[in-house]
């Protein structure tokens, strides 16, 4: 008997959270034309780098290439941008940015570029300190 009440309470909580999320997405994403329209500048920037759109939902866009996957998820009141993949010289990369709903897309792009520039600087510093580190001297 208690397990039926427990399952009912858990189900009700999940329903309420899901309903609130859908209403929030409707107010902040769908009313602006969806993810593709609201984040058009950001998506166009990523596509210009060779990524193709693989999946679009009400609150998510997935772009990918042969070696990278970028996921734009609208979670709560934030846009979460996840980049996962492999880049020559840099190796495996797994990075996540979280931006508030009203954060300018141009600033998001600037943060991505700053991150890549920082990664390249780290690579250069490593090469200056030990230029033969990448060679296998066995």
Largest sheet: 5 strands, antiparallel
Oligomer: single chain
Query: Which structural category do the helix and sheet elements fall into?
Result: alpha+beta
Q: How many strands appear in the DSSP assignment?
A: 5
User: What's the SSE pattern?
Assistant: HHHEEEEEH
What do the pLDDT scores average to?
81
The number of helices is: 4
Supply Rg. 20 Å
What is the beta-strand fraction?
Answer: 25-35%
Shape by Cα distribution: extended
Strand order of the largest sheet: 1-2-3-4-5
Q: What's the N-to-C terminus distance?
A: 68 Å
**Which regions have little confidence, pLDDT < 50, spanning 5+ residues?**
none
Helix content: 40-55%
Textual characterization of the structure:
The protein has 138 residues and is α+β, with helices and mostly antiparallel strands. It has four helices and five strands. It has a five-stranded antiparallel β-sheet with strand order 1-2-3-4-5, covered by helices on one side. A hairpin with a 2-residue loop joins β3 (68-75) and β4. It starts with a helix and ends in a 9-residue tail after the last helix.
């Amino acid at each position: 008997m208690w397990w039926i009440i427990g399952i009912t309470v858990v189900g009700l909580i999940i329903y309420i959270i899901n309903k609130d999320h859908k209403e929030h997405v409707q107010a902040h994403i769908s009313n602006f034309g969806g993810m593709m329209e609201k984040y058009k500048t950001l998506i166009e920037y990523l596509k210009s780098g060779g990524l193709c759109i693989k999946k679009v939902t009400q609150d998510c866009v997935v772009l990918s290439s042969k070696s990278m996957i970028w996921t734009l998820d609208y979670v709560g009141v934030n846009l979460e941008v996840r980049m996962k993949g492999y880049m020559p010289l840099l190796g495996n990369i797994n990075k996540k940015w979280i931006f508030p709903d009203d954060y300018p897309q141009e600033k998001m792009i600037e943060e991505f570029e700053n991150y890549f520039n920082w990664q390249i600087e780290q690579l250069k510093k490593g090469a200056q300190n030990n230029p033969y580190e990448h060679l296998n001297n066995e």
